[in-house]
Automatic annotation (TrEMBL):
Domain Aldehyde dehydrogenase: start-end pairs: 29-494
Keyword annotations from UniProtKB, A to Z: Oxidoreductase
Classification of source organism: Bacteria, Pseudomonadati, Pseudomonadota, Betaproteobacteria, Burkholderiales
Record family assignment: Belongs to the aldehyde dehydrogenase family.
Class in the EC hierarchy, top level: oxidoreductase
A molecular-function term among this protein's GO annotations: aldehyde dehydrogenase [NAD(P)+] activity
Protein name (Swiss-Prot/TrEMBL): NADP/NAD-dependent aldehyde dehydrogenase PuuC
Gene for this chain: puuC_3
Active site residues of this protein: E263
């Protein structure tokens, strides 16, 4: 994928309600938020902030569309056909959608076009295939009764997405909700608000009825909160930080109650035993799991736990992989190290690393701002991949989700010690175990308090059937898999007396 000029990409801002953009003069929004490009800090657009009135308009529109457009009632295979067409349009739009995604986010263009857009399209296709597969069950009752559960859509789903993979994270919410026959009102992050508008446009082009997929813009405090509390929102699905997740859960309890799916933060361990096969590959995997998207990944493998004898050779190899990465603007073809989303977030990373060093840690690699200027990223916030050793479970960089390319290394001598170090007091999103010993790998699969365990690999494949979601404070419920589809349905019980 070639480099491109971000100023050449047409940005369409606003809310998308009832199948169209809401015009400037009829908005009545209270204020606007400026949107900056992480790669160079340039403010390139702004978004309106939907207040209570605009949120109400979007949800009412969705509710009417849910009741009257026929989306929920149509033959599920027809719904699937429209969603497959939607997926095809997303795929075909990769040259534009990839640029739109890339320019204002942390996603380098090669990855946005090569992964984010096709993965979004395939996720929509995956859930389209579910549309006629889950209708309910017939219960084993006595002969004189017929008992059933009937699967029904909720109505209007309120979806709130983070900035780190704007299209993919939103699609994990939207695709199962739509396939199950719901309407959706989506609020993207105010830092990455534009690519999902294009997604909503393409949905309408594909034949999703107007009003079934709506996008509202704004911040969390006003727009997100109004959306979650709206009485006609039947269910909320959220991906973001643990703190926001807790606030949303409280808002759901106080305005409903409403069911809620929460995909939250993590502090995931990578456990490497001395018998792990192919050390060079392991090093590449470990480095990749903390530098992909510059560590701004919920499942970033941020805590390296390594058997003592392997610590030095592994650290050395990880340092070599770190050194290969090229920071630069997301629109430069050769960029392999993403910018940090914003200057305050880069300062936060610096603060955590600085305080961890002051408390006695050793800096093996990185620990400074990187220069993205050579590849168009002047004035962007870049941070060098960092490895900290001589840390403990109490070190700030070991405890806190950094959301940056910062890896800590702790050593262990026994399996028991490794397992104890791996358990985080709060988070339980994912973990990686690297060993040639199958029994040991499975003991860790059983023992780890984590929603996902990868063995001799780290990160997702394109197996959408495998759900993702956290244990402990990393979340409630799942995205992807059958579970996420079923979480967009409610089940009605029916019991019929058959006696004459
Ligand atoms: P965030 O919690 O700051 O914001 C996420 C979204 O919530 C944004 O759209 C924001 O506007 C909205 N929001 C904020 N306050 C709100 C409120 N009170 N009510 C309603 N909405 C509100 O998170 P972020 O910085 O955008 O994303 C990074 C976080 O997301 C990290 O903690 C990361 O681990 C997590 N994450 C988790 C997963 C997962 O699958 N578990 C995936 C990606 C990111």
């Amino acid at each position: 994928m070639d480099s491109f000029n971000p100023d050449d990409v047409a940005i369409r801002s606003g809310h998308f309600i009832g199948g169209e953009y809401v015009d400037e003069d009829e908005r009545g929004d209270e204020r606007r938020i400026e949107v900056a490009r992480p790669s160079d800090g340039v403010i390139y657009a702004s978004v309106p902030v939907a207040g209570a009135g605009m949120v109400d308009r979007a949800v009412e529109n969705a509710w009417q569309a849910f009741r009257t457009s026929g989306w929920a009632r149509m033959a599920p295979r027809e719904r699937a056909k429209i969603l497959r067409r939607f997926a095809g349009l997303v795929e075909a739009d990769a040259p534009f959608l990839g640029r739109l995604e890339s320019l204002g986010s942390t996603r380098p263009i090669a990855q946005a076009v090569g992964w984010d857009v096709p993965f979004t399209a395939e996720g929509i296709r995956f859930y389209a295939e579910f549309a006629d597969k889950v209708g309910g069950d017939v219960a084993a009752t006595d002969h004189d009764h017929l008992g059933m559960t009937i699967a029904e859509p909720y109505g209007v789903i309120g979806a709130i997405a983070p900035w780190n993979f704007p299209l993919v994270m939103a699609s994990w919410k939207i695709a199962p909700a739509l396939a199950a026959g719901n309407a959706v009102v989506l609020k993207p992050s105010e830092m990455t608000p534009f690519s999902v508008l294009r997604l909503a446009e393409l949905a309408v082009q594909a034949g999703v009825p107007a009003g079934i997929f709506n996008v509202i813009q704004g911040d969390g405090r006003v727009t997100g909160d109004e959306l979650v509390r709206h009485p006609k929102i039947s269910k909320v699905t959220f991906t973001g930080s643990t703190r926001t997740g807790a606030a949303i859960m409280a808002a759901c309890a106080n305005s409903g109650t409403k069911p809620v799916t929460l995909e939250l933060g993590g502090k995931s361990p990578q456990i490497v035993f001395a018998d792990a096969p192919r050390l060079d590959d392991v090093a590449r995997r470990i480095a990749g799991a903390i530098t992909g998207n510059a560590g701004q990944v919920c499942v970033a493998g941020s805590r390296l736990l390594v058997e003592r004898s392997l610590a030095e050779p592994l650290a050395e190899r990880i340092g070599k992989v770190f050194a290969e990465l090229k920071p630069g603007a997301t629109w430069a073809a050769g960029t392999t190290l993403s910018p940090i989303i914003s200057a305050p977030q880069a300062a936060r990373i610096e603060g955590i690393v600085g305080r961890t060093l002051e408390a006695g840690a050793t800096l093996r690699f990185g620990g400074v701002r990187a220069d993205g200027g050579a590849a168009g990223g002047a004035n962007g916030a870049f941070y060098t991949p960092t490895l900290l050793t001589d840390v403990t479970a109490h070190s700030e960089a070991v405890r806190e989700e950094v959301f940056g390319p910062v890896l800590t290394l702790q050593t262990f001598d026994t399996e028991e010690e490794a397992l104890a170090l791996a358990q985080h007091p709060e988070y339980g999103l994912a973990a990686g175990v690297h060993t040639a010993d199958l029994g040991r790998a499975l003991r860790f699969v059983r023992g780890l308090e984590a929603g996902t365990v990868w063995v001799n690999r780290y990160g997702r494949t394109s197996d959408f059937m495998i759900p993702t979601g956290g244990y402990k404070r990393s979340g409630i419920g799942k995205d992807l898999g059958r579970q996420a589809y079923e979480a967009n349905l409610r089940f009605k019980s029916v019991l019929i007396d058959l006696r004459p």
